[in-house]
Specification:
heterodimer, A: about 230 residues, mainly alpha, two-stranded antiparallel sheet, 2 strands, about 75% helix, B: about 110 residues, about 70% helix
């Protein structure tokens, strides 16, 4: 075993075979990162189930599906602009993904201060995303009369699909904001500095955050644009 | 690992960041310009896969991971295609049965702003 770990790792298909048959460690990354990836994989299946069931009910209903472009239009005094709030939310999430990627980079450069501020910015953007979602939900429930069992615009399944998919995503964003704040605070207080100056956790938190953005890409395409 | 973690020049991130903004803007334009039909669906899917690909490959560093991890994470989601296929058949069948037994929809939308 000691012989295997001391020699250089092979690449390509041979590397895959060696990695899985090495009898000790298949993924040559920190265990926390491997675990986060496997968690994200399982989460992928959960969100896929939601989106596929949304596809199924949308295909099977004979009532017209409410046109998201109009349902989610917002007017600022003048003509309603189609889907504008959703577009702003999309840009906010992408901005936060960028600041998170920077935070990971700064973490590996051992720049405590920049890592903290970039993570704090990411959490703040995430929180504003959730805030806009609260606004969107209230408008839909109170003004448009959308319920999980029906709505005035079309197919009854619209409400349940919408609340389930965006609700579960919003929950992920909220959890991510808390997660980021905890890690950011530990960066600030020097918790990781004292533990061997190791900032891998910032990359692991980053993986989760990028995943939340990734899921939004699919929700935006399939629920709002389709 | 020769170096600790994933360290890459900042420029890569700025490039991808900008690109993601552009693609997001374009996908919003699909709706804003009110494109419909196959053109709309094709563009939505292209922009979606581009964005997803850049996020996974660059922001999540998948491009630089070892093949064993890449395969372990990226292969299983292919099975979702089977689920999509099965449920598309199911959805189509349900729609046909509804038309057969209940007829065409008689739904009359209310005015959203009354």
């Amino acid at each position: 075993m000691s012989e295997a770990s001391s020699t250089a790792l092979q690449s390509g298909v041979k590397g895959v075979v060696n990695d899985f048959s090495s009898d000790m460690q298949s993924f040559h990354v920190p265990w926390g990162k491997a675990m986060m990836w496997i968690f994200l994989l399982s989460d992928t299946f959960i969100f896929s189930c939601f989106l596929v069931s949304y596809m199924t009910v949308r295909m099977s209903t004979t009532d017209p599906w409410p046109y998201p472009s109009e349902v989610f239009a917002l007017s600022f005094g003048g003509e309603p602009i189609p889907l504008i709030l959703i577009a702003i939310m999309t840009f906010i999430l992408i901005t936060s993904s960028g600041t998170m990627a920077m935070a990971v980079n700064m973490g590996y450069r051992k720049d405590k201060k920049k890592t903290f501020w970039l993570m704090a910015a990411t959490a703040l953007l995430g929180a504003s995303f959730v805030g806009m979602q609260v606004f969107e939900w209230s408008k839909l429930i109170l003004e448009e009369g959308v319920r999980p069992w029906g709505n005035p615009m079309g197919a009854a399944q619209f409400g349940s699909s919408f609340f389930m998919i965006t609700g579960f995503h919003g929950l992920h964003v909220s959890a991510g904001v808390i997660y980021l704040m905890v890690v950011a605070n530990r960066v600030r207080t020097g918790f990781y500095e004292r533990r061997g100056n190791n900032y891998e956790i910032v990359e692991i938190a980053g993986l989760y955050w990028h995943f939340v953005d990734l899921v939004w890409v699919f929700i935006f395409a399939f629920f709002y644009l389709w | 690992m020769a170096q600790e973690g994933q360290q890459h020049p900042l420029g890569v991130y700025f490039w991808i960041w900008g690109l993601l903004f552009v693609i997001s803007f374009l996908s919003y334009m699909v709706d804003y310009m009110n494109l419909q039909g196959y053109l709309r669906w094709t563009l939505i899917l292209i922009f979606m896969f581009l964005k997803a690909g850049f996020i996974i490959a660059i922001f999540m560093h998948m491009k630089w991971e070892r093949l064993a991890l890449q395969l372990a994470i990226l292969l299983p989601p292919i099975f979702i295609c089977v689920l999509i296929w099965l449920m598309a058949i199911e959805g189509d069948y349900t729609w046909l049965t509804r038309i057969e037994f209940f007829g065409e929809s008689t739904f009359v939308p209310e005015s959203p702003h009354h």
